[in-house]
Protein: 2'-5' RNA ligase family protein
Organism: Puia dinghuensis
Amino acid sequence: METGLARTSFSAVAPPGLGIPSRRAEYLLVIYPYGDLQDKLLEAQQQFSTEYGLQVTVRNRPHITVAAFQAGEPMEDTLIRWIQRICKHFNSFDLTLNNFSGFPPHTIYLRVQDPQPFRDLMRQLRAIDDYIRSSGCPPVNLISRPYLSIAGGLTEQVYNKAMPDYSRKTFHDTFHVDQLVLLKREHAFDACKTVNIFRLQPDKIN
């Protein structure tokens, strides 16, 4: 099962003006469903593993990725400040998960019904992409097609067996997004750790 981060190699990189290379870490900016919905999603992931005989490995809580990137440790405080500034001016919103789809031949996921809030976030986060590129790191992966993974890293055989079953299943649930969470890990097989939580602005009342 995937943990939400692609397996990548880590190389030393120095931000401009620093003579000592710093090791890159992987970061994810995510949205966590919570409460009964989180339990429902964990149950769906476990059910998939049981039905198709998959070995469950260490993974993160069910989440929707907003952005993924690599950065050196000296950059972390600056990135946190910039993301905080963006979130202070971004309103919370409702998010609906609606039925299953897939990325052949490896991932089955729940669709996000309305991606518009993510597109708005992407526009705001481009400034962070500029900073990360200028520091010699790969471009930020800003997610334009958000989804919540139920099962990833599948073999083609398992995917082809499961996808027809899941295309007939129904799932519909809505939750309110009022924060983003920044996760980090140092190596490809590490579990992610929480770096910071960014609160969004409350909905405006007309």
Confidence is low (pLDDT under 50) at residues 1-21. The longest helix spans residues 116-134.
